[in-house]
């Protein structure tokens, strides 16, 4: 789900010089593929459970032995941990113990693994990085959605 029917286009209007002009969300061509049925079902289950509205839903691959350097997503002003703001959730679809996710809270770095098939809230306004030190690609289902009270309550429980 994004701002283009092309699943390779992950841009968002008005962010980082994006050429996307329409702010209308649309399912990509992948959304209707038979092979994506279980992923689409998972997306719909989370939508129903937490009563969220999606902005973008993407499958992101980090190739084997690659790194995403320390950065923030503060360029996107819609993110924030308050009702009605945008939050990013991750579900590792393909991962292993040699993939490390790091996030910095003030000066402290928390380094760890995101376990397979678990739902994680990631505060992308804080510096974060990923190292794939394995021989396999890492794939995450990434859900940008509007924070609801129900989702906030579950996130706070974690």
Q: Features of this protein?
A:
158 residues, alpha+beta, four-stranded antiparallel β-sheet, 2 helices, 15% helix, globular
Briefly say what this structure is.
This protein has 158 residues and is of the alpha+beta class. It has 2 helices and 8 strands; from the N terminus they run αββββββββα.
Describe this structure in words.
With 158 residues, the chain is an alpha+beta fold. The protein has 2 helices and 8 strands, in the order αββββββββα. It has helices at 37-50, 149-157; strands at residues 54-62, 67-71, 86-94, 99-105, 108-112, 120-122, 128-132, 138-146. It has a 4-stranded antiparallel β-sheet, covered by helices on one side. The chain is globular. The model has no long low-confidence stretch (mean pLDDT 87).
């Amino acid at each position: 789900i994004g701002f283009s029917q092309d699943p390779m286009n992950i841009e968002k209007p008005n962010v980082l010089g994006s050429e996307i002009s329409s702010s209308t969300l649309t399912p990509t061509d992948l959304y209707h593929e038979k092979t994506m049925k279980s992923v689409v079902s998972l997306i719909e289950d989370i939508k129903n459970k937490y009563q969220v509205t999606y902005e973008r839903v993407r499958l992101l691959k980090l190739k084997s032995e690659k790194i995403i350097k320390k950065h923030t997503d503060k360029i996107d002003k819609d993110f924030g941990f308050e009702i009605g703001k945008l939050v990013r959730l991750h579900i590792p679809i393909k991962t292993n113990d040699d993939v490390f996710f790091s996030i910095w809270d003030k000066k402290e770095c928390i380094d760890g693994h995101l376990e397979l098939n678990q739902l994680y809230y990631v505060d992308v306004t804080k510096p974060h990085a990923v190292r794939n030190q394995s021989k396999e690609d890492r794939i995450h289902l990434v859900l940008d959605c509007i924070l609801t009270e129900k989702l906030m309550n579950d996130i706070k429980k974690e």
